[in-house]
Design goal:
about 500 residues; Jelly Rolls; 16-stranded mixed sheet; 2 domains; elongated; 8 helices; about 40% strand; ten-stranded antiparallel sheet; 35 strands; mainly beta
Length: about 500
C-alpha cells in the first residue's frame, strides 16, 4: 500500500511524467520595414528577406539595415523586436531554452507570461537572463551593453561572473571591464538585490496564506520553470493556479504549486535532494527519477513534501536514498518495469537490469500524527559493486512498512467505477480506526473530466502531446484529523512537459 499511495500522490508527479523531449521549436521572423538579411547556419552568403515571413533555426543570423525593423516570434508567443543596424544570432530554440546573441544594435524582448523557460540574451559583455516579461538591450560598436527592464525581473551577469537582479524601471551598463560604471548604473535602485538575497525566504510548512504568497513571490524570481493560469476544477470552482520549479541549493530542486479559490487557499511543495550537484537544466536530472534499465547519473537521496489548506497538513519525509537493481540480474523480483528512457513497459529477461531509488527511512504524517513509516536501515542486506552492500528487494521494502494501529485496509477505484471518467480513488482505513483518502481527477480547464474514450488509440505522437496539454491533475485529500475539511490541489502537467518529463513522442 505504501508504494501505491505515494506513487499516486502529487509528490510523485515528477515520476509519473516520464522522459521524452519534444522537437526543437522553430521561430518565425517577420519583416516590418527596411532591408533585412539572413545567413543560414553552414552558409557564407547573406540572403535578403523576400517574403514577409521566414523560418529561423538554431545558428541562423539576422542583420538589419539602418532603417529596418523585424520581429522574431516564438511558438509560446514570446517575441523579440529587432531595431535598425543590428546583428543577431539564434543560439538555442529548445523547449526549455530560448537563447539569442545580440552582437550589435538594439532589441526589445517580450517573454511569455504563460510558461517561463530559460530565456537569455547574450552580448559581448553581458548575459540578460529573463525572469520578467519586457526589456531592451543595446550594444554599441565597442561591445558596451545597456540593458533596461520595464516589467518583471531580469538577472544580468558580466564576463567576470558578477550578477545583479534588475527590477522594473531599472537599467544598467556593462563594459568589458565592469558592471555599472560610475554615473551609468541603475536608474532607480540604490540597493540592488542579489540572487542569494532573493532566495532567503522560502515557502515552508505552517505558513499563513499571506506568508506563502510573499515567500512564493521571492522564489518565483529564481524559477527556472513557471506557469500561471485560471481554470475550473472538478467541482465547478474557479482556481487561480501558480506553479514553479527552482534550485534552492546546487543539489536540490523544489516544485511549488499554489491554488487560490474564492473561499480557500491550498499549497504544495516538493523539495528533492540529489546525490550530486544538479545540471544547469534541472529537468535533465528530474527525468531520471522514474528509474530505468541504465544506471542514472542523478537520483534522490532524500525528499520532503508538504501540502496544506493553512489549517490542515500532510507531510512526507524520506532519507537514505540509494540505487537498487530490481532486475533478474539483481534480486530477480521484477519481471516487468516501465523504462523511462524507452517510454514504455518492458518485460525483463535474464541479464537485464532495472535501477530504482529506495529509501532507508520514510514517514507520512497528517496534522502531526504518523500514519505510515518505513525504517529499512537495520536490515541485513547483501550486495556488491556500485551498491556497496545496500541492495534491497521489493519484499524487503514491503516487510518494513508500518501503519497506524499496526495495519491498513486499502480500497482502490478507477475509471471503471466512474463510467469511464478519469477519476481515481485510494481509500485507506488504518487499524486505529482513522482514515486517509485521496480522490484524483484528470480535468480540463473548463472543469470537464477526461474519459477513457479520449485515450482510444492514442498512445504516442502529436495526438498524445495535444491530449496531455489539455488537462490538469486535481487531488483531494481527506483524513480523520481534518474533521470534515479537505486539501484540494490542482497541478497543470504542462510544467513537467516543459521540463521534458512527459514521454509523448
Amino acid at each position: 500500500m505504501g508504494r501505491i499511495t505515494r506513487r499516486l500522490s502529487i509528490a510523485f508527479l515528477l515520476a509519473l511524467f516520464l522522459p521524452g523531449v519534444f522537437a526543437a521549436d522553430m521561430a518565425i521572423l517577420q519583416l516590418i520595414e527596411g532591408r533585412v538579411q539572413v545567413k543560414r547556419l553552414g552558409r557564407n552568403e547573406w540572403e535578403p528577406m523576400i517574403s514577409a515571413r521566414s523560418q529561423l533555426n538554431i545558428g541562423d543570423q539576422v542583420r538589419t539595415s539602418s532603417r529596418a525593423k523585424a520581429v522574431l516570434i516564438m511558438p509560446d508567443r514570446s517575441k523579440i523586436e529587432l531595431g535598425p543596424s543590428s546583428l543577431f544570432v539564434v543560439d538555442a530554440l529548445a523547449e526549455d531554452n530560448y537563447s539569442f546573441k545580440l552582437n550589435l544594435g538594439r532589441l526589445k524582448a517580450f517573454a511569455s507570461k504563460l510558461m517561463s523557460r530559460r530565456f537569455a540574451v547574450m552580448t559581448p559583455t553581458a548575459v540578460a537572463a529573463v525572469r520578467g516579461t519586457e526589456f531592451t538591450v543595446d550594444v554599441d560598436r565597442k561591445g558596451i551593453s545597456r540593458i533596461e527592464l520595464f516589467s518583471g525581473l531580469l538577472a544580468v551577469s558580466d564576463n567576470k561572473g558578477n550578477e545583479m537582479m534588475l527590477r522594473p524601471g531599472e537599467r544598467i551598463e556593462v563594459t568589458h571591464e565592469m558592471m555599472g560604471a560610475p554615473g551609468q548604473g541603475q536608474k532607480s535602485s540604490k540597493n540592488p538585490a542579489s540572487l542569494k538575497d532573493v532566495a532567503k525566504k522560502e515557502v515552508a510548512s505552517d505558513m499563513t496564506k499571506e506568508q506563502v504568497q510573499a515567500a512564493a513571490a521571492q522564489e518565483m524570481k529564481l524559477a527556472e520553470y513557471q506557469l500561471g493560469k485560471a481554470m475550473i476544477d472538478a467541482f465547478g470552482q474557479r482556481v487561480r493556479l501558480e506553479e514553479y520549479v527552482f534550485k534552492p541549493a546546487p543539489d536540490q530542486a523544489k516544485f511549488v504549486a499554489l491554488n487560490e479559490r474564492d473561499d480557500r487557499f491550498d499549497y504544495f511543495y516538493y523539495l528533492g535532494t540529489f546525490n550530486k550537484e544538479l545540471p544547469s537544466d534541472v529537468g535533465k536530472a528530474l527525468l531520471q527519477l522514474g528509474g530505468g534499465m541504465t544506471l542514472p547519473d542523478y537520483y534522490l537521496t532524500g525528499y520532503e513534501s508538504y501540502r496544506s489548506n493553512t489549517t490542515d497538513n500532510m507531510k512526507e519525509l524520506a532519507s537514505g536514498g540509494h540505487l537498487v537493481d530490481l532486475g533478474p540480474a539483481g534480486t530477480g523480483e521484477a519481471a516487468q518495469a516501465f523504462d523511462a528512457n524507452q517510454g514504455k513497459t518492458i518485460s525483463l529477461v535474464s541479464g537485464d537490469h532495472y535501477y530504482k531509488t529506495f529509501f532507508d527511512s520514510y514517514a507520512l504524517s497528517v496534522n502531526g500524527n504518523n500514519k505510515i513509516t518505513l525504517d529499512a536501515s537495520a536490515l541485513s542486506l547483501s550486495g556488491s559493486g556500485d551498491f556497496k552492500g545496500r541492495v534491497q528487494s521489493l519484499a524487503h521494502e514491503d516487510a518494513s512498512w508500518r501503519y497506524a494501529g499496526g495495519g491498513v485496509f486499502t480500497e482502490v477505484k478507477g475509471p471503471g467505477d466512474y463510467n469511464g471518467d478519469m477519476h481515481f480513488a485510494i481509500n485507506n482505513t488504518f487499524n486505529d480506526g482513522t482514515f486517509l483518502n485521496y480522490s484524483m481527477y484528470m480535468v480540463r480547464d473548463d472543469g470537464s473530466l477526461l474519459n477513457l474514450k479520449d485515450f482510444n488509440n492514442v498512445s504516442s505522437g502529436e495526438k498524445l502531446k495535444e491530449l496531455m496539454m489539455s488537462w490538469n491533475y486535481e487531488e483531494v485529500t481527506t483524513a480523520t484529523e481534518f474533521q470534515g475539511r479537505k486539501i484540494d490541489l490542482s497541478v497543470d502537467p504542462k510544467i513537467f512537459i516543459q521540463m521534458g518529463q512527459a514521454n509523448v513522442q
